[in-house]
Amino acid sequence: MVFFTCNICGESIKKPAVEKHYQTRCRGNDKSVSCMDCLKDFYGEEYAGHTKCISEAQKYASQAQGFVVKEPRNKNAQKQDSWMDSIRAILDSSEYQLTPALRNAFQKLQSVDNVPRKKAKFENFVGNCMRLPRHQATEVWDILEKELNKLKVAKQAELARIKAEKEAAIQQKKESEEAPPTKKAKVEEAPEETTNGTATSDFDWPSQLTKIVSKQSEGIFLEKLRKKILKKYTKHLAVEELSEKQAKKFTKRFDKQLKLADSLQVEGDLVKAAS
Question: Which residues 6+ apart lie within 8 Å of 29 measured at CB?
Answer without folding.
Answer: 8
